[in-house]
Design goal:
The chain is α+β, with helices and mostly antiparallel strands and about 210 residues long. It has one domain. The longest helix has about 50 residues. Keywords: Membrane, Transmembrane, Transmembrane helix. It comes from Stieleria varia.
Length: about 210
Amino acid sequence: MSMAPNNPFESDFQGGNRYGSQPPQGNNSVWLWVLGIVGGVFLLGCIVCCGATFFVYRTTTSAMSDIMTEEVASQFGDQQVFKDNIGEVQSAGPNFGATITEAQKAAANEGKGDVTTMVVDVQGDKGSGKIYYRTNQKDQTARAVLVMEDGSEFELEITDSWEESIGEMGEEISEEPGVEAATESTSEIAPTTDAAPTSETDDALNEPDTAGS
């Protein structure tokens, strides 16, 4: 019985070419490098973006705080009640959280929406507190009250230069996204009125609400 001669190429097709079936290793390495580079660039971009945003925020806040410190010191630093409780002004700056809270309360309360409040944090060598600067848009009156950490309140005298300076800064703060959004969201559910100013408006101007501060 004769057997067919062995075909040296037959085993390659029947058993498969073990070398030809393996995927090229070079392609995987290239993709890993590409993905690594893309991920690194994305991470670097996020770090740069966050860093730039933080830098702008700190620079703007620092500049605003410097201006506010000078204004508070020049306007109230010589008043005796301010000297006794705050002393020499070390730092001052707008309190955005308290200002937003006051804007929400004013928009939600009927008859008090015409009273605008700006809250300023002040730190001195004798103590710290908040200045509540309230303006009534209807009768164009203004009032500044120093509220200490223990809740005690002291009336402060307001000069024309302070009203101009704080008014300009108040407009800038009111344009902040958080303040504007808070006012719009509460004004949608707040009742509207065309009545003349009532005693409630006067009470809002004369009695600062410090519960949210």
